Every structure is written in C-alpha cells, then in structure tokens.
Input
Amino acid sequence: MIVLMDVMEFDHVKFLGGLLVGCAGSLFTFQGLAVFFNRA
Output
C-alpha cells in the first residue's frame, strides 16, 4: 500500500513537473519566434 502511494505521488510530481516544463518551453519558443520575426 505504501509503495502504491509512493508511485502515485511520484507520477503526480512528474505530471506537475512536465506541465511546468511544457509551459516554460512554450513561452521560450514564442519569445524566440518573436525575436526571429522582429529581426527578419
């Protein structure tokens, strides 16, 4: 039971981490595209 809880907790943290990384990556990508178009 404790192991199952640990796995669920790890998945939850991994999901939140992936969400944060995804949001940050999207922001950086949009910022990079904006800079690229401004230079063009």
Observations:
- The helical segments are 2-39.
- Residues 3 and 9 are 10 Å apart (CA to CA).
